[in-house]
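hey can u check if this looks right to u? its 654 residues, i copy pasted from the old doc so theres a chance i mangled smth
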Amino acid sequence: MIRSILCTSFLTVSCLAAPLPEIPQIRNYIPPKAKVATDSPAVESLRSRLQELRPRAEAIDLDRPGAIDTFGLFEAVDFTVREGRFYDEKRLALMERDVLGAFEKRLQELDSPGENEFSWRREPGIQWRAFRSRVDDSIQPFGVYFPEAYDSAKPLRVMVWLHGRGDTLSKAAFYAAWLRSRKEFMGKGRELAQTLIVYPYGRMSNGFKFAGSTDVYEVLDIVERDYPVDRESMILSGFSMGGAGVWHMGAHQQDRFIGFHPGAGFVAPKGQQKSSFRWQKRLDTMFEIAPYAENFFDANLMAYIGSKDRNQMARTIMGAAFQEFDRELPLIVGEGAGHTYTPQAAAQLASWMRDLYVRGKESPLRVVWKTPWLQFGKKDWVEITGLAQQGRFGRIEADWTSPELLRVQTDGITSFRLTLPDQRKSFSELRIEVDGQQLNRAQGDREDSKEITISRQAAGWKVGELGAAKQRKRPGLQGPIDDAFSSRFLFVPPSEPEPYAKAERWLKFEYQGALQRWRNLMQGEVRMKEAGQIDEQDISSSHLILWGSPDSNPMIRKIAEQLPVKWEGERFTMRGERYSRETHIPILIFPNPLNPETYVVLNSGHTFRQEHDRSNSFQYPRLPDWAVIGLERLPDGNLPGHIESAGFFDEFWK
């Protein structure tokens, strides 16, 4: 009798039905299968050397100056061995001899009393460096080429170089093989006088998107801190996958750079034509570059393609996008070249960069900017802070027609922020015209305000923030789901089993899969905490990725009444529709009720999956702000299950 009561009140299915079969494992494309046996002499020797050095590595105080650069060498090799990324015995030998050898040398320098500067920061040539990511606390590598001829009386210019795809390019291989052989522009890159060349790793093979893009900006922060650089003389460049990175980073964020050189690289996400989901086209706008063409008109762009390169996408698509505005795509063609530079093209690019460095950066008095996503809304002294609809392009054109008059034209925008450029002193005596409407005396909180926000109210455009909605989409808090994984986040697993067998099976599979996928693709470890261990610091600093339901996860239980999904007994309600909890799971991104400056995400990691790793051009968001997953279809490399329903919240998160 007691057994019967227990089975009726909890996990009834497990008592009356046979255990569910396990979900089949999904094939991983990244990392590829190892080509060197784990018991080969090269692997055994590398493993033995790591064990010998481990006590010294673990004794390093990572808060000391120079410690991350030192520990990063050991960690890169250790990660490679732990993950079994063995592809070439020669590379393994280089990891042992060169990377661990450099680690030992740095240990000695790190322990030298009174050392204020480290050799690897001041010696000319390629130097191996590392940083601790603010996204996941992982140690990530980068490289710096310090010029041979350096005039200390002048600041250094900066060229950032984004590398091409390499699915076997582990962190240790990046040090041991890739950085050793750098010859950008057929060797012409190093001829740029007074130029520091910076090589972000960018999490290996994600096209410098999401955390890969965040890493680039973190590396630039370190470069500005540690080297005498001219912050107004940075050029972003790259080839192949790196060229794609330049295209999309340049389309989205331009303020750190004076110019952009994309060599080859894709400019449109592949595979979107196969999608039958109506919301996918809005997600495609994140990395489909042609609609952003106007953003490059005043951006000092110089593209490159080999005339025989099999992928002419950038030349064809972007050329047509520029021609729509009666403009020519700035392009150098390597005659007779495939997927590489010719010496002539390399010399032309180096000359273009030298001229650009001489001109330097100017603050324009006319700004044109387009974006469908608020996290990418800033250009110079203009920032789009409200869109009529995420995933739909908004456009702003702001033009100082005279020192006293600023004319602004908008489309699809509900609010924007203006920060006075250096050539202007105060808004207090200026006239501003928005979409033909003359604003009353444009001023901020003070007469000498250098910044104002202008919003579309019921009566037209006015100075001030949008109406007092409790929560609305804004820059940095606008979705979709994948946006949560570009900045600091924390996984919170269930504390108890789900009371529904299919849901429990799905959660276990997807949770473990998300952990492994971050390790495979993003070269780090997910930060995790049990619900009972979450503190105020976690809530204030991290997006919370919550797995389970109110029954299984106390953190979800704590905020359940303030989420747009409602759990009621055996069902939950999403967007007015009721679903069985045995056969459906909700996924969503939403402002955290405990800290509306951050997100909560339910039951999801990145929404692009294993099959999308076959090409970095497939790696773009596959789910919008929310979705209901039907569990009758098992997760696979394309989808987490049957997409029962999905969509975007409106601009008020409704």
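DSSP finds 15 helices and 27 strands in the chain.
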